[in-house]
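In response to a reviewer's request, we include the raw inputs and outputs for one of the modeled complexes. The two entities were modeled together in a single run.
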Amino acid sequence: MRRPSKSALAGLAVLIALPFIIRFSLGGSERYYLHLLIQIFIWAFIYTGWSIMGRFGLTSFGHGAFTGIGAYGCVLLWNYLGLTPWVGIPLSVVVAVVVALLVGYPCFHLRITGHYFALLTLALTEFVRLCIVGLRDYTGGSLGTQPRRYGDGLSIYAIQFETDRVVSFYIALALWLTGLAIWIWVDSSMDRYALEAASQDEEAAASVGIDVTREKLKVTAISAAMCAFGGAIYGQYQMYIGPDTIAGLSVSLNIVFAVIAGGLWVMLGPTVGAVFTQVLSEALRVTIQSTAGLQSAFGSSVLALDTLIYGLLLVLFIIYMPKGILGTLLERRQKKSVSSRIAPVSAA
Amino acid sequence: MQCELDIFFLEAVLNGVLLAGLLALLALGLNLIFGVIDVVWICYAELVMIGMYGINYAYKAGAPFLAAALFGILLVALAGVLLHQLVIRPVLDSAPINQLLVTGGVLFVLQAAATVAFGIDFKTLGIRLGSLNVYDMSFSYSRILTFAVASAAMLLLWLFLSRSYVGIAIRAIAQDRQIMPLMGVDHRNIYLITSGIGGGLAGLAAVLMVVQYDIYPQIGLQFGPLIFMICVLGGLGSMIGGFIAAFLISEFIAVGGSCFATEWGYAIAFLFFMIVMFIRPQGLFGGKA
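The model returned the following structure tokens for the whole complex.
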């Protein structure tokens, strides 16, 4: 393991102090800014979880199913059986992992990759969403449901923390840091080399003794567990879960796009993707809402304008910047430092 | 749960057959494009949605229905050509998954654009064709018409692909992308023509759907996953496979929906799809895995 660099530690210190910086500088809208940051951290964790398998060529559209299982499992166990999320979250994470392995094993064993893998996992997402909607007596159907509030809404037993934004901030921050730690752990393990080999050429990797199916299942399990956990925490923070906000195809697509926009192959890429998408959609929403001319021209449907711009940017990103924001920046910097190092040598 | 072998069961089975015609037509366009260009348009159902809005506005503006329908077909064919030229062409040589994702971005754009331009409320054409009653069963004429037109369109496409020069060139490109340019076939033109035909088929599907369903910006999400599932189940690129898969899936939806609730019909269909994929990963009629 490499030691954390000075700049990383300084960055962490700033993040820990951030709630207080916000309180002093932006006191009036403290709750709003903290909410934005919490959203970014939770989604960054989920995106990082996706990228753990996504970076090895396993482009899954099935992670909307895992976030959904995590969120709904935890809330349903709490609402109907009174089971504390301390048990409910691990249980739903286990369910998500079992589902992931059940779908993953045949996929990897039969070498289903590329389009077929993407579309098959898309079917999984739809299946889970339809189950959620179909079980409407328990899940509230397409309207969604809420975890039953415990006491004053701030409880360790019920893992409810929505009322205190500062506590929520630190929980989300810890979650995000855990996600990065898992990413580093996978990145520095032998599995990474095995999987990189497998994503280049499966036959060749298998011929040098790599158990491709096993390696893929490992990252799939980790990735699904992270997304289910993130989904559960998201539900606890929002105190509302709906089939379209935390499960389903739109969540799957959002995950994939944010990671691609941020950068798939670098550690902080998914985080940059989360910052980019959340800030972009918030900024667009605020600008559009405060522009009276647009409001009167289009009415309430103007709210979709941010999705329109978001989608356009995504198309441009994939065409012109397939490495993502952070990936492209890092590559530029690397090229510059390499060329500045080479230049004096060639001059001499 | 009323799942007995009575007349209503038969009605559900027959309605499934009628639904299959529409789904097969939708899958056909996507399969054609995948077979020839090797790209999956994730936004295919959104193109259909654009066509439906186009027809709706043309009809409401006073055009006769057939003219509005023609307008819709041409509109979506044009959209298909533009999609290929502006979005697919720049990524033709990049990783397959990027091609999939870029059309996913287009999905967001089209959906949001429709919301901004047309609002989120349901729009309907207000054409009611009534229904055919046999014994205690009832089938709406719009569904029967859909089935007939979809079948005719599939037959025409088959004739076009097997008899005409351009059709044969399209099939040749689908079989070997490297050799055909050497034989003097310009694959760029073939790609454009294929995108146009694929779009036109989506436009035709829009014509058939506009008389059956209400129009709203998210309608693509209702049909999109279903179409991909049918294409993959039949074997991506296999048109006959897609045709048979459409029948299988729509029976699950129609019968499952009439025995349980609508969502469960769909859920069973998706479950069936996943299980079949594990038994035959290349799809029912897919040649190459």
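As requested, we also summarize the result in words. The first strand of chain B starts at residue 131 and ends at 134. Residues 7-279 of chain B form a domain with the ABC transporter involved in vitamin B12 uptake, BtuC fold (CATH 1.10.3470).
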